[in-house]
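Something for you to look into today, if you have time. Could you write out one complete protein record for me, on any chain you like? The space below this message is yours for that.
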Amino acid sequence: MAQPKKLFAKDIITPADVPAEAKESYIRNFLAMTRNTGRLMLFAGDQKIEHLNDDFYGTIKEHGSEKRIPSDDADPEHLFRIASKGAIGAFATQLGLIAKYGPSYRDVNYIVKINSRSHLVGVGQAEPVSSSLVELEDVLALRRSSGLNIVGVGYTVYVGSDKESSMLAEAGRLATKAHQNGLLAIFWMYPRGKAVPNEKDPHIVAGAAGVGACLGADFVKVNYPKVNEGSTAEAFREAVLAAGSRTGLITAGGSLKPAREFLHETWEQINVSGCRGNATGRNIHQKPLDEAVRLCNAISAIIFAGKDVAFALKVYEGTEQCLV
């Protein structure tokens, strides 16, 4: 596949709610986090709240057997080391962690995850809801005081929850305020709740993608759907179309997979489905630092450089260099 066309400031269509005085900042942030491609490799590090310590300590299943999570992952700073050394577009995590560790990792583009919830309360116990942990004003204050490369904000909406109205309202306001300050908005759009029969149904996933576009998101993150018959990559095109040409659709990386399988899936999502990248967490950080960085670079070789799976595997194995 050909390398994505390099974008310049003149190529970026800014939303109309970005005022003239914030336009330059918005374009600069967009080009920085997409590495001038319009695609996004988002390193997701918001699981310290979302999944508590399940993702960072103990055992996980890999290749059908159990293995221990590397000791590197127990320390939150592992996430920042990966973000600094790996070829990523941006690193998404909560403001508290960015405030503590960000000053030591100034070369990273940061997305502040505004809301989060733990996984302890299941859908069978209560409808999912995730409220803001901080306000946009807190993000802007951190950006001013620290000088860190805060390029955007992230927010999760559980479409289908009976609490969805509060999250939709918060997300809509957040997108508008972010744009007014030259920041991008990335929304995690997850169909979830008792009213949702199958949260990975391609049609429901596509609906959630369209909602994210309506809220003003610049990028929408969704779970990759599952199908009983046919190609998942083909079915995922519905979601890409629903998001539209001016909202980039990216996929959640999900639970740990073999590197070859993960990279092949990533290639299909971009080259068959037409999505604009992915947001990967566990598949990256549940590895020792050197291996985690190599997987970052392999993913980015596909997303940013348009390389095939064979080349990306060589990057992961350390026999090729990442070209982004």
